[in-house]
Design a protein that fits this description.
61% helix; mainly alpha; elongated; 132 residues
Amino acid sequence: MEDLCPCRPLLDRLGDRWSALTLTLLDAGPAYFGELERRMRPVSRKVLTQTLRGLERDGLVHRTVEDDQPVVRVAYGLTELGRSLAGPLAAIEGWTERHQQTVERARAAYDAAQPGPGVTALRERAALSRCA
Protein backbone atom coordinates (compact mmCIF):
# COMPACT_ATOMS: atom_id res chain seq x y z
CA MET A 1 0.00 0.00 0.00
CA GLU A 2 2.89 2.35 0.74
CA ASP A 3 3.97 2.11 -2.91
CA LEU A 4 0.49 3.10 -4.03
CA CYS A 5 0.24 5.92 -1.50
CA PRO A 6 3.63 7.44 -0.60
CA CYS A 7 1.88 9.77 1.87
CA ARG A 8 0.80 6.77 3.97
CA PRO A 9 3.61 6.96 6.60
CA LEU A 10 2.84 10.62 7.27
CA LEU A 11 -0.91 9.97 7.45
CA ASP A 12 -0.20 7.12 9.86
CA ARG A 13 1.86 9.50 12.03
CA LEU A 14 -0.83 12.19 12.07
CA GLY A 15 -3.56 9.67 12.71
CA ASP A 16 -1.95 7.87 15.62
CA ARG A 17 -3.30 8.18 19.14
CA TRP A 18 -0.98 10.94 20.42
CA SER A 19 0.47 12.98 17.55
CA ALA A 20 -2.52 15.23 16.83
CA LEU A 21 -2.93 15.98 20.55
CA THR A 22 0.79 16.77 20.86
CA LEU A 23 0.66 19.13 17.88
CA THR A 24 -2.48 20.81 19.23
CA LEU A 25 -0.89 21.39 22.65
CA LEU A 26 2.31 22.74 21.09
CA ASP A 27 0.29 25.10 18.90
CA ALA A 28 -0.31 27.12 22.09
CA GLY A 29 3.47 27.55 22.44
CA PRO A 30 6.59 25.59 23.38
CA ALA A 31 6.34 23.20 26.30
CA TYR A 32 8.68 21.13 28.41
CA PHE A 33 8.50 17.36 28.30
CA GLY A 34 7.05 17.15 31.82
CA GLU A 35 4.31 19.66 30.97
CA LEU A 36 3.30 17.65 27.92
CA GLU A 37 3.35 14.45 29.94
CA ARG A 38 1.02 15.92 32.59
CA ARG A 39 -1.38 17.38 30.05
CA MET A 40 -1.53 14.19 27.99
CA ARG A 41 -2.21 11.67 30.74
CA PRO A 42 -2.41 8.67 30.52
CA VAL A 43 0.41 8.69 27.92
CA SER A 44 3.51 6.87 29.11
CA ARG A 45 6.94 8.53 29.06
CA LYS A 46 8.09 5.98 26.49
CA VAL A 47 5.18 6.63 24.12
CA LEU A 48 5.46 10.40 24.50
CA THR A 49 9.19 10.19 23.75
CA GLN A 50 8.49 8.07 20.67
CA THR A 51 5.76 10.47 19.53
CA LEU A 52 7.97 13.52 19.93
CA ARG A 53 10.89 11.83 18.16
CA GLY A 54 8.66 10.86 15.26
CA LEU A 55 7.24 14.38 14.96
CA GLU A 56 10.77 15.79 15.15
CA ARG A 57 11.95 13.36 12.47
CA ASP A 58 9.09 14.49 10.22
CA GLY A 59 10.12 18.12 10.70
CA LEU A 60 6.96 19.10 12.60
CA VAL A 61 8.53 19.64 16.04
CA HIS A 62 11.87 21.01 17.18
CA ARG A 63 13.64 20.06 20.39
CA THR A 64 15.69 22.43 22.53
CA VAL A 65 17.92 21.18 25.34
CA GLU A 66 18.35 23.76 28.11
CA ASP A 67 21.40 22.73 30.10
CA ASP A 68 22.32 26.10 31.61
CA GLN A 69 20.43 25.31 34.81
CA PRO A 70 21.23 22.76 37.51
CA VAL A 71 18.58 20.53 35.94
CA VAL A 72 18.66 19.81 32.23
CA ARG A 73 15.28 20.55 30.64
CA VAL A 74 14.03 19.74 27.18
CA ALA A 75 11.52 22.01 25.48
CA TYR A 76 9.51 21.21 22.37
CA GLY A 77 7.91 23.60 19.93
CA LEU A 78 6.37 23.54 16.51
CA THR A 79 8.38 24.23 13.41
CA GLU A 80 6.86 26.35 10.64
CA LEU A 81 5.75 23.10 9.00
CA GLY A 82 4.16 21.95 12.26
CA ARG A 83 2.35 25.28 12.63
CA SER A 84 0.92 24.84 9.15
CA LEU A 85 -1.08 21.89 10.52
CA ALA A 86 -2.94 24.07 13.06
CA GLY A 87 -5.74 24.91 10.60
CA PRO A 88 -6.40 21.36 9.39
CA LEU A 89 -6.30 20.01 12.96
CA ALA A 90 -8.70 22.73 14.13
CA ALA A 91 -11.02 21.83 11.25
CA ILE A 92 -11.02 18.18 12.31
CA GLU A 93 -11.64 19.18 15.93
CA GLY A 94 -14.54 21.40 14.86
CA TRP A 95 -16.02 18.65 12.70
CA THR A 96 -15.76 16.25 15.64
CA GLU A 97 -17.52 18.67 17.98
CA ARG A 98 -20.33 19.28 15.45
CA HIS A 99 -20.87 15.60 14.64
CA GLN A 100 -20.02 13.74 17.86
CA GLN A 101 -23.65 13.20 18.87
CA THR A 102 -24.58 11.99 15.38
CA VAL A 103 -21.71 9.51 15.43
CA GLU A 104 -22.72 8.32 18.91
CA ARG A 105 -26.31 7.76 17.72
CA ALA A 106 -25.05 5.85 14.68
CA ARG A 107 -22.87 3.67 16.91
CA ALA A 108 -25.74 2.95 19.27
CA ALA A 109 -28.02 2.02 16.34
CA TYR A 110 -25.36 -0.22 14.85
CA ASP A 111 -24.69 -1.93 18.19
CA ALA A 112 -28.43 -2.46 18.82
CA ALA A 113 -29.13 -3.95 15.38
CA GLN A 114 -29.38 -7.69 14.98
CA PRO A 115 -26.26 -8.77 13.17
CA GLY A 116 -26.85 -10.42 9.84
CA PRO A 117 -25.09 -13.61 8.89
CA GLY A 118 -21.39 -13.23 8.40
CA VAL A 119 -19.62 -13.81 5.11
CA THR A 120 -18.46 -17.26 6.23
CA ALA A 121 -22.02 -18.32 7.05
CA LEU A 122 -23.27 -17.01 3.70
CA ARG A 123 -20.53 -18.92 1.85
CA GLU A 124 -21.32 -22.12 3.76
CA ARG A 125 -25.01 -21.69 2.97
CA ALA A 126 -24.21 -21.17 -0.74
CA ALA A 127 -21.92 -24.20 -0.78
CA LEU A 128 -24.62 -26.36 0.80
CA SER A 129 -27.21 -25.20 -1.71
CA ARG A 130 -24.86 -26.11 -4.59
CA CYS A 131 -24.40 -29.60 -3.14
CA ALA A 132 -28.12 -30.23 -2.83
